Amino acid sequence: MVIKGLKGVMAAETKISFIDGEKGRLIYRGYAAKDLAVSKSFEEVCFLLWYNKMPDETELQTLREFMQKERYLPGFLKQILDLLPANMGLMEVLRTAVSALGTEEYKWKPTVEQAARITAIIPTIIAYRYHREKGTLPVEPRQHLSHTENYLYMLTGVIPIPSHVRALEAYMILTMEHGMNASTFSARVISSSESDLVSAVAGAIGTMKGPLHGGAPSEVTAMLSEIEEKENAEKWIRDKLARKEKLMGFGHRVYKTLDPRAASLSEIINSVGKDDKWLDLAAFVEKKAIELLEEYKPGRKLYTNVEFYAAAVMRSIDMEDELFTPTFTASRSAGWAAHILEQAEDNMIYRPEANYTGSFMKI
Ligand code: ACO
Fold first, then answer.
1. Whether residue 213 lies in the annotated active site
2. The domain defined by 4-214+325-345 carries CATH number 1.10.580.10
3. Which of 26, 77, 164, 286 could lock onto 33 through a cystine, CB 3.0 to 4.6 A?
4. In terms of C-beta density within 10 A (0-12 exposed, 13-18 middle, 19 or more buried), how is residue 14 classed?
5. Of ligand 1's atoms, which has the minimum distance to the CA of residue 5?
6. Which ipTM was obtained for this model?
């Protein structure tokens, strides 16, 4: 029997994260992701995912300093980023740039050092190319800033305010890891052939960019731009569902209740304290959409997913749409790396079978 999309198939054992889709729980290495998001730094949660324990002060400082040192772009990579065609989107650029980081120093077996290097450099690649696209001067990383603070600094050129750093950091922690999602599965499959960590991350980026996975947040903002005013929402959603099209930012393979990350992100948006027409419209559309999804797709348990709130958080900190999916990628790279490390501990190449439904001919 073919199980389409491997729905419900257990493809690995993992100690990295646990998702309870019915109760809406997300656990990283035993800790609730929502608690980590409000009490820990991005670097601390990286350490937790990669080493399976909370760091002590010295361990944390060592990882921080290593990542700070690794956030600078080598000259050859800047040249590549400058040469890529102008019509290449940030995700395609990121996939190409990560791939260009080479294989020699990243070769099998993967190490925590490799994981930290790739995670440290991704925000710099995004920020560098973002400035080039806009025709502004790329901002060099600042060594003493935290991972998230430095990312925002490189994007804007100014030291970010603490509430923006906290909002982005919480978002990045909440989206760092999520079990056997499509991009993580891609990373594990690539890694299972004993290929290098860079190839596994480049492949995962390719998976991440699709609209059914990480490409949804910018589609959420496109939807809200089209709706424009609250009074247009109901008709717009009804028309979309009547055409049997999907509403971006709703539904999840695993969660059949409110995504726990969505609830935390909603609190974070309030803590930024932005009174914004767009956020107000988003909250209205969310309510209306859940109501109408139940009418058009009864019993499917379709709720807001993290992508919907990702769009809202990014908006609340004035981040532009084109940065949504790359930023999601910057956080998820830490989770991919944790899975690549775990895959290597007890590796077996992934090799499922396909049921041939074609014909048999004679020449
Ligand atoms: N809008 C309308 N209908 C939907 C939606 C949606 N967003 N999501 C699911 N449905 C419907 C499907 O049409 C299907 O209906 P049917 O039973 O009449 O055929 C039913 O609900 C089940 O949907 P599936 O697509 O089979 O559910 P699956 O678990 O395979 O898909 C997915 C999950 C891909 C996330 C889906 O809900 C979707 O496409 N959502 C929109 C895109 C999106 O927001 N992606 C981001 C996901 S979060 C992340 O990746 C980080």
1. no
2. yes
3. 26
4. middle
5. 30
6. 0.95
